[in-house]
Specification:
InterPro entries: Flavoprotein-like_sf, FMN_Rdtase-like_dom, ISF_SsuE-like. This protein has ten helices and five strands; from the N terminus they run E-H-E-H-H-H-E-H-E-H-E-H-H-H-H. It is of the alpha/beta class. The protein folds into two domains: 172 residues, Flavodoxin domain (Rossmann fold, 3-Layer(aba) Sandwich); 61 residues, no CATH class. Helix 6 links the parallel strand 4 and strand 5.
Length: 243
């Protein structure tokens, strides 16, 4: 198995200790990406990645190699401590550079693990934010490990081991899970936008090229009958409003 680790912490303290504990439960090769070392310029909000295509991002030469490694991996690990009740600026800046995945999701066959630590509070909300972002990207299943160390230089290995082993078994199984209803709604929103009378051309080309526009969900995922019917209904309704 191949795992890529996106480390959003500028230090190697508790968050990284948690990641190292996670790694001890996984069998495979690891690609570590420490965002502090990548020196990604701040996203300037030009919207080129969304409106024109990700290839037009002015920082594409830095972002693309990271994205390529994520696409090549079987499992994705995203780690961040809580900074001011949110992810670190390093991770937020990277996520801002990948905003186009909200329109053009690509990770339907991937599993992910979110690792968040805090000295005080906010760890569950931060993990939820990363989880929602990854699900918008299309990620099939997201696991979460959160830990409040209370300012102590320590980690809870037992809780980390339990979740990381579940993550490892899932990645190794190759099983693809049915999406949540909310994820199907998001899919149908972007699909309806790609089918609209005035779509973002980069979106339309992507949805046609990857045969997403003709499916109720990503072709790799076999929806059960109820979710298939739900997706058809949602797309019908949304396409009436998004013209």
């Amino acid at each position: 198995m191949k795992y890529v680790i996106i480390n959003g912490s500028p230090r190697r303290k508790n968050t990284w200790k948690m990641v190292e504990q996670v790694k001890s439960n996984l069998n495979g090769d690891f690609e570590e990406i420490h965002l502090m070392k990548e020196k990604i310029p701040l996203c300037n909000g030009c919207f080129k990645c969304i409106v024109e295509s990700e290839e037009k991002c002015p920082h594409r030469d830095i972002i693309k190699p990271i994205v390529d490694k994520m696409m090549d991996a079987d499992g994705i690990i995203v780690a961040s401590p809580v900074y001011a009740m949110n992810v670190t600026a390093l991770l937020k800046n990277f996520l801002d550079h990948t905003a186009y995945f909200y329109h053009r999701p690509e990770f339907f066959t991937k599993k992910a693990l979110v690792v968040v630590s805090t000295a005080g509070a906010g760890q569950k909300d931060v993990a939820k934010y990363i989880d929602e972002t990854l699900r918008h990207w299309g990620v099939n299943k997201v696991y979460k490990i959160t830990y409040a160390c209370g300012g102590k230089d320590s980690i809870d290995a037992k809780a980390i081991n339990e979740v990381s082993r579940k993550f490892a078994r899932d990645v190794e199984s190759g099983k693809l899970h049915n999406p949540k209803l909310g994820d199907i709604v998001f899919y149908d929103v972007w699909k309806a936008m790609a089918c609209s009378n005035e779509p973002i051309e980069a979106d339309r080309e992507f949805w046609i090229k990857n045969d997403l526009i003709n499916n109720d969900f990503a072709p790799e995922i076999k929806l059960n009958p109820l979710k298939k019917a739900f997706s058809k209904m949602m797309f019908f309704v949304l396409s009436k409003f998004i013209k």
